[in-house]
């Protein structure tokens, strides 16, 4: 799929794994997030097709967004984390393209709910709103405005309330 910025988005393939690790390592100060992605790949929370890369015109991955299984209370949901872009491609739309493609893929798989712990000025552009406004909380000590949630089908599936339970590799 092409985006308006000419980023090509697609599900991660096995051949992309080293490139994805490189993207995540380059985007963060520590290897924690790259190790997390590797651990999630081996976990039951991994959902095939929801690890999405954005690639340049030559097909080289430059951005990555990952959705894995979590729960809001007892309701199955997805967690968006991490989102990574090679530093030289940040602020070019590569991350947004990967996020939009991942959310679209999730909706196509019949998923309804997505959570994210992230920058409150960035994620609302994708439809995320403050989770606490929907009765969603976390056991982490994080700023209220940084914990957000999204329903992929507002008309028939409003956000459930409850405490977010992350996959084991998150260590929460």
Q: Can you lay out the helices and strands and say which pair or pack?
A:
Elements: E1 8-11, H1 17-27, H2 32-41, E2 51-55, E3 61-72, E4 75-85, H3 94-108, E5 113-117, E6 129-130, E7 136-137, E8 147-151, E9 162-165
Parallel strand pairs: 4-5, 7-9
Antiparallel strand pairs: 1-2, 2-3, 3-4, 3-9, 5-8, 6-8
Helix pairs in contact: 1-2
Structural description of this entry:
The model has no long low-confidence stretch (mean pLDDT 96). It contains three helices and nine strands; from the N terminus they run E-H-H-E-E-E-H-E-E-E-E-E. Strands 1, 2, 3, 4, 5, 6, 7, 8 and 9 form a nine-stranded mixed beta sheet that branches. By secondary structure, the chain is an alpha+beta fold. It starts with 7 loop residues before the first strand and ends in a 7-residue tail after the last strand.
The counted number of beta strands is 9
Task: Point out poorly predicted stretches.
Answer: none
User: What radius of gyration results from the CA coordinates?
Assistant: 15 Å
Total DSSP helices: 3
- Categorize the overall geometry: globular
Structural class: alpha+beta
Helical amount: 10-25%
N-to-C SSE string, H for helix and E for strand: EHHEEEHEEEEE
**What's the pLDDT, averaged over the residues?**
96
- Beta-strand fraction estimate: 25-35%
The termini sit apart by 34 Å
Could you give a short account of the major beta sheet? 9 strands, mixed
Give a concise summary:
The protein is an alpha+beta fold. It contains 3 helices and 9 strands; from the N terminus they run βααβββαβββββ.
């Amino acid at each position: 799929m092409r985006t308006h910025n000419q980023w090509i988005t697609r599900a991660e393939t096995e051949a992309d794994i080293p490139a994805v690790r490189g993207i995540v390592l380059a985007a963060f100060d520590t290897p924690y997030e790259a190790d997390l992605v590797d651990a999630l790949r081996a976990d039951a929370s991994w959902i095939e097709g929801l690890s999405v890369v954005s690639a340049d015109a030559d097909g080289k991955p430059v951005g990555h967004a990952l959705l894995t299984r979590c729960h809001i209370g007892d309701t199955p949901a997805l967690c968006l984390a991490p989102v990574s872009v090679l530093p030289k491609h940040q602020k070019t739309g590569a991350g947004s393209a990967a996020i939009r493609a991942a959310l679209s893929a999730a909706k196509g798989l019949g998923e309804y709910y997505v959570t994210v712990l992230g920058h409150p000025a960035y994620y609302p552009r994708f439809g995320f709103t403050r989770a606490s406004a929907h009765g969603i909380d976390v056991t982490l000590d994080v700023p209220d405005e940084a914990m957000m949630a999204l329903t992929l089908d507002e008309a028939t599936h409003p956000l459930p309330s409850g405490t977010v339970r992350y996959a084991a590799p998150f260590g929460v």
